[in-house]
Amino acid sequence: MKSSIHAHVPYSRLAEHLEYAIANRVNPEVFFQGETLDSLVWEELASLADSLHNAGLKTTIHAPFIDLNPGSIDSSIREVSRRRISQVMQAATLLRPQVIVVHPGYDDLRYGNNRLIWLKNSIDFWQEFVPAARELGTILAVENIFEKEPSTIRALLDAIDDPCFRHCFDVGHWNMFTTVTLEEWFSELGGYVVESHIHDNHGESDEHLPVGEGSIDFGSFFPLLNRYAPDAVWTIEAHNTEHLQRALKNIQNHTV
Predict the structure, then answer these.
(1) CATH 3.20.20.70: does it fit domain 5-255?
(2) Element (H, E) at 168
(3) How far apart are CA 54 and CA 57, in angstroms?
(4) 8 A C-beta contact, residue 91 and residue 61
(5) CA atoms of 7 and 13, how far apart (whole Å)
(6) Average pLDDT, integer, range 96-122
(7) How far is CA 142 from the centre of its chain?
(8) Phi, psi of 209 (to 5 degrees)
(9) Cβ atoms of residues 230 and 201 within 8 Å
(10) What secondary structure letter does DSSP report for 71?
């Protein structure tokens, strides 16, 4: 198993989980909601970031995503999305994350007939932020959400064509929405993976269960992840401490 693992934590709860994270050597993936960014006390963020760094912990960031879409046909939606990502990049100057996870905003139902428009808008959007990511020493990683297969994400990655713009593979979302096998997904995008969100479900809802408590074949997943992306960040997306502890224990059954 990885010597260090990240775990999802909303910024609003980072302070209360700080002692646990440091004591158990759990690196936080800090999730910022939009309203959190609007009311952020920068001195508080700086203090929390210093505590994490002084303890030798690393960080990643999960950007806000609800109602946002960098590839939206509506320019106003793109502008709001741009503002949120700009706020995240500012927070990143303090947290110094390895990776910033972002959502693509694409799904076939809404954009199937406008895929190329969405793609062009997305390319233009992310090209604005790649230089800032490079300057910060971080990587923007686009996460699979509703994608049935990897071609849309692959087209976006190929168009940006920059080591500071890569892929976060969410195995839970793959189990819910994707129509291709794990092997097919990794053969297409494995070389782009810099982070993986690790959680389980039964394929019908985003349950965020600990590894091994749903229907995902982790016996196939972990070897593929290690083969294609041996240096990727592993992030457990548990929604409470009990699930995190079970996930950490269950992962050992697949990675020893």
Answers:
(1) no
(2) strand 165-170
(3) 8
(4) yes
(5) 12
(6) 95
(7) 7
(8) -80, 160
(9) no
(10) T
Contacts of 237 (CB under 8 A, 6+ apart): 8, 170, 172, 197, 198, 199, 208
The 10s digit of each residue's pLDDT in 119-175 is 999 999 999 999 999 999 999 999 999 999 999 999 999 999 999 999 999 999 999
Dig out the tokens for 116 from the structure: 């190329």
Nearest-Å Rg of the Cα atoms of the chain is 17
Measured distance CA(244)–CA(242) in Å, rounded: 5
Is pTM beyond 0.90? Reply is yes
How far apart are the C-alpha atoms of 225 and 234, rounded to whole Å? 10
Rounded to the nearest 5°, which phi and psi values hold at 77? Answer: -65, -40
Residue 232 above 90 pLDDT?
yes
- Residues 26-68 have pLDDT tens digits of 999 999 999 999 999 999 999 999 999 999 999 999 999 999 9
Query: Rounded to whole angstroms, how far apart are CA atoms 137 and 193?
Result: 17
Residue 225 and residue 93: Cα distance in Å, rounded? 29
**Cβ partners under 8 Å of residue 46, min gap 6:** 94
Q: Give the residue among 216, 217, 220, 194 at the shortest CA–CA distance from 207.
A: 216
d(Cα 187, Cα 124) in Å, to the nearest integer?
A: 27
Domain spans of the chain? 5-255
CB 213 within 8 A of CB 246: yes
Residue 147: Cβ within 10 Å count: 22
